[in-house]
Design goal:
heterodimer; A: 120 residues; mainly alpha; elongated; B: 161 residues; Alpha-Beta Plaits; 3-stranded antiparallel β-sheet; 5 helices; 58% helix; 11% strand; transmembrane helix (chain A); membrane (chain A)
């Protein structure tokens, strides 16, 4: 395998790994459930994409046949991640889980639970 | 059209199956054709009517723009997570939306979840409000304005709703 390809694959793996690490770190570090939702939906999509592109380059080289299924995995991830985040947020709202004290617009939680328009 | 109630979906299933298996062998082609015919036939009665994509070029441009925004969002959120947590000012925001189509609202909500610092949490029953949670809420009005002009307007144009 030529050196430049190895370097590209390594860099992509490293970037992906760093973003995944930061995503998991945020999950442990952020104070309430609503804020925790942000780190797995975002920081990790780029992380997974990086790892998958690295895999795509490596396998296209090894098989001498372009490997595109990683793109499909990324696409499925991009479709499912927001839906999962939305369902977790809904569940949290319906279980009346408290948001952090200083959260702005906390009064909106009530109208969200009833799926009403926000209070004037 | 009896064998292909959803021609576009059939083609997509065929291609996706071959891509997932990374092969063009005869056996996989037969299996792909089998799925492309039977799956649409099994699910054709479960379909809801959705608006068609009216402006395909705008849709492609929108996808590219969102992909760029996802990268930016990832970096931004990563920096916020590493940075001082005490300084974060989380908040809920109600964004007024006026879209009739459920598909449009779904696309908008998913985009909002994937892009800078916001996750969509709930949609009001009358479909006029999208509730979002922001990790770091600066100016509420500016955020609402950005979502409306940057994401809602093109979606409305793409689906013509």
């Amino acid at each position: 395998m030529p050196l430049y390809l190895e370097i590209i694959v390594c860099v992509l793996l490293l970037i992906g790994g760093i973003f995944l690490l930061v995503g998991s770190y945020g999950l442990a570090r952020l104070p309430d459930i609503y804020m925790r939702l942000h780190s797995p939906t975002k920081a990790s999509t780029l992380g997974i994409t990086g790892v998958l592109i690295a895999s795509m380059i490596l396998h296209s080289y090894l098989q001498e046949f372009i490997s595109i299924k990683e793109l499909l995995i990324t696409l499925f991830l991009l479709i499912t991640a927001p839906v999962a985040a939305n369902m977790i947020a809904k569940t949290a709202i319906h279980h009346e889980i408290k948001a952090k004290e200083k959260t702005r617009g906390k009064e909106l939680i009530n109208s969200m639970r009833n799926r009403d328009a926000p209070p004037e | 059209m009896r064998f292909f109630p959803m021609p576009f979906h059939s083609i997509m299933l065929f291609v996706v199956w071959l891509l997932l298996n990374n092969s063009l062998s005869a056996g996989q082609m037969v299996l792909a054709a089998f799925f492309a015919i039977t799956i649409p036939w099994l699910v054709k009665d479960m379909r809801d009517e959705h608006p068609k994509i009216r402006r395909p070029w705008l849709a492609i441009r929108y996808v590219l723009m969102v992909m760029k925004d996802i990268v930016v969002a990832n970096v931004e959120v990563a920096l916020l997570i590493i940075g001082p947590i005490k300084k974060l000012q989380p908040g809920f925001v109600a964004v007024p939306i006026n879209m009739s189509s459920e598909l449009g609202i779904t696309v908008l909500a998913s985009t909002v979840s994937l892009t800078p610092g916001t996750v969509s949490a709930e949609v009001s029953k009358d479909k006029n409000w999208l509730y979002i949670h922001a990790l770091h809420l600066g100016d509420e009005g500016a955020l609402i304005k950005e979502i409306k002009s940057r994401y809602e307007a093109p979606i409305k144009e793409i689906f013509g709703c």
